[in-house]
């Protein structure tokens, strides 16, 4: 990767990835894009509506990029509320991005998710290659996306790569409309109120990962030797399998009086229950050497410290 276009650059992953790519590959080599222009973009920024057929192609050509990292998408709960819009953005955007990669001969990354699995998938130690019959629109989009990326690789030779992200936890940009968002909210509320009411029920396990590991995964996979990649577009990756009470006990090691309550949202609970409890990430380790550095406790320490600094700055 030398010159990279990032779509969805203002989102949860994009906002941090863009900065990391700028410091790794040079300010002038990263083109951030999103549906709206921020007030003060911190580097090169272009407005792109991924659903418009030619916009990704035109900006890729204008800057002569060699890689597209396509992150523009709706998350699971939002997609359940607006399924047709989700199809248009998640699938329409993806095919437009893949077409640009095909026509300009670019490397390509887009994330899949634990949402690509469904209730009939084995729940524990979910294999890399297994049954995928998701029951959410987001899941349908993710499975179709994995297949579409495989297709552009095998049919047109586009160098497509991707991972199935677990729930991502970060303090920089809030996720929006995901099922795993509680695992971000819990840290903010722990600091603000010393208490959190979870919309996901006790005992509901999902895979989770701290953002620095997720960013490293993207770069590591994109720089990996293609001869070693047997899977390409949908590597299971994980850091921890955790339920709300595990976040509560990890936070209590830092904030002893922290209290966790429950008021379950049936929609997001239903989505969570249709996903695996813990996935097997051996293929990512074997094929490109990925291992997460953060477990739940060192993530908790870092999250709480960074959120405290952020809230102090915001109120200053
Ligand atoms: N974090 C995402 C969501 O909850 C899953 O990929 O929708």
Features:
316 residues; alpha/beta; Rossmann fold; UDP-galactose 4-epimerase, domain 1; 2 domains; six-stranded parallel beta sheet; three-stranded parallel beta sheet; globular; binds serine; L-threonine 3-dehydrogenase activity; NAD(P)-bd_dom_sf; Epimerase_deHydtase; NAD(P)_epim/dehydratase; L-threonine 3-dehydrogenase
Give the SSE layout:
Blueprint: E1 4-7, H1 12-25, E2 30-34, E3 45-47, H2 55-63, E4 67-70, H3 76-81, H4 83-104, E5 107-109, E6 112-113, H5 137-156, E7 160-161, E8 163-165, E9 167-169, H6 182-192, E10 195-198, E11 206-210, H7 211-223, E12 235-236, E13 240-242, H8 244-252, E14 259-262, H9 266-274, H10 282-288, H11 296-315
Parallel strand pairs: 1-2, 1-4, 2-3, 4-5, 5-7, 6-8, 8-12, 9-11, 10-14
Antiparallel strand pairs: 11-13
Helix pairs in contact: 1-7, 2-4, 4-5, 6-8, 6-11, 8-11
The structure holds serine.
Serine (SER) binds next to loops.
Give a written overview of the molecule.
It is a single chain. With 316 residues, the protein is α/β, with parallel strands linked by helices. The chain folds into two domains: 4-166 and 210-236, NAD(P)-binding Rossmann-like Domain (Rossmann fold, 3-Layer(aba) Sandwich), CATH 3.40.50.720; 168-207 and 239-278 and 294-315, UDP-galactose 4-epimerase, domain 1 (Alpha-Beta Complex), CATH 3.90.25. Helix content is 44%, strand content 15%. The chain is built from eleven helices and 14 strands. The strands form four sheets. It has a six-stranded parallel sheet. Strand 1, helix 1 and strand 2 (30-34) form a beta-alpha-beta unit. Helix 1 crosses helix 7 (211-223), helix 6 packs parallel to helix 8 and helix 8 (244-252) crosses helix 11. It is globular. The mean pLDDT is 97. The protein binds serine. Serine (SER) binds at residues 75-76, 113-115, 138, 165, 167, 178-180. This is L-threonine 3-dehydrogenase. It holds the Pfam family Epimerase.
């Amino acid at each position: 990767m030398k010159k990279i276009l990032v779509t969805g650059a203002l989102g949860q992953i994009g906002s941090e990835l863009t900065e990391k790519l700028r410091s790794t590959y040079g300010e002038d080599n990263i083109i951030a894009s999103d549906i709206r222009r921020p007030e003060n973009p911190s580097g090169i920024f272009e407005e792109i509506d991924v659903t418009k057929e030619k916009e990704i192609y035109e900006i890729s050509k204008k800057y002569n990029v060699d890689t597209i990292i396509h992150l523009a998408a709706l998350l699971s709960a939002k997609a359940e509320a607006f399924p047709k819009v989700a199809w248009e953005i998640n699938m329409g955007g993806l095919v437009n991005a893949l077409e640009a990669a095909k026509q300009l001969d670019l490397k390509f990354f887009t994330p899949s998710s634990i949402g690509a699995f469904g209730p009939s998938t084995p729940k524990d130690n979910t294999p890399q290659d297994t049954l995928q019959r998701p029951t959410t629109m987001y899941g349908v989009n993710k499975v179709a996306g994995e297949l579409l990326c495989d297709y552009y690789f095998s049919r047109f030779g586009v160098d497509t790569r991707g991972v199935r992200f677990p729930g991502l936890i970060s303090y920089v940009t809030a996720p929006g409309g995901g099922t795993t968002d509680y695992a971000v909210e819990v840290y903010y509320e722990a600091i603000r109120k010393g208490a959190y009411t979870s919309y996901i029920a006790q005992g509901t396990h999902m895979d989770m990962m701290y953002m620095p590991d997720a960013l490293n995964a993207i770069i590591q996979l994109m720089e990996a030797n293609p001869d070693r990649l047997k899977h390409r577009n949908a590597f299971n990756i994980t850091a921890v399998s955790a339920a709300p009470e595990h976040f509560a006990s990890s936070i209590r090691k830092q904030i002893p009086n922290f209290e966790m309550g429950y008021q379950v949202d049936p929609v997001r609970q239903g989505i969570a229950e249709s996903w695996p409890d813990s996935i097997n990430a051996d293929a990512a380790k074997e094929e490109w050497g990925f291992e997460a550095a953060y477990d739940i406790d060192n993530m908790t320490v870092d999250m709480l410290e960074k959120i405290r600094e952020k809230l102090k700055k915001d109120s200053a």
